[in-house]
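To whoever is on call:

I kicked off a structure prediction for a single chain this morning and the downstream step that reads the tokens threw a length-mismatch warning. I double-checked the sequence; it's 290 residues and nothing unusual in it as far as I can see. Pasting both halves so you can look.
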Amino acid sequence: MNLTRTEEFKKQVVRAFSSKANAYESHAQVQSLAALLLSEFIWQCTSDNLVLNAVRCRPLPSGPVLEIGCGTGFLSAHLLVHFPDRQIVFSDISEEMLALCKARLELCPEYDSDRVSFVILDGEEMQTETSYAAIFSSFALQWFDSPGPALARLAGCLLEEGRIFFAVPGDQTFVQWKALCHELDVPFTGNQLPSPADLTSWARQANLDCQLREHVVDHYYADVHSLLKEMKDSGTATRRNEQGLSVGQLRRLLGKRLPALSSGESSDRAQGAARGDLMPVSYHILYGGM
């Protein structure tokens, strides 16, 4: 059977994450931070404590909640704490990642097998007879082929007054890598990542309002080769674009030091200076609720 480009890309994503599942957490500092930021936002949005509540609050209806793309459980562990009295379904498209999430959560004091379940699920194609009070996703929506229609389907799986909470890497991620590619006249082969306007548009397609927050953090690498190797080792290097680099272009790019275009705070730059020759790479985290 001939697969479409979308189907083949999705299979490549599953293979990449599954093959790197055991090493994922040692290369996923940004994913861990995104889960923490999203967890704090969820707590502010759903807490009954008005002192803690710094954002527009709309209490969730009674009912189960679902996480899509749980990975090894960065956000999942927070959800166990936030929702101690709800049925929670954790899902991922990778069986290996889901197994690691289950192993992590079984060690948590809040874990209760009577209220927690694990499902292999492609969140983009989700069809269910269950309606959820909330759907959560951290660093998964960017892998969807058609995020707008997918969010509309997810919205259709919500109870009345239910909400979707999300985090994704934003379009200002890898600005130094993009700048170096421009300088060397080499194509940037990373995947296109969503902008704040994209997220607002996706929400509109699903008839949802979007509350959006942004955070930029710098990580440090010796050169482009180190950056690309970390992406490969974390399973996040699968390219949507079939265009690759020629041998000559790759040689010009690898080993180059990244330009110092840190978009972090001045304290980040000071820390970078203390790191010697290591160069910053910016990660742009978009998170919020719909």
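Update from on-call: the warning came from a stale cache, not from the record. Cleared it. Sanity check on the structure: Confidence is low (pLDDT under 50) at residues 262-274.
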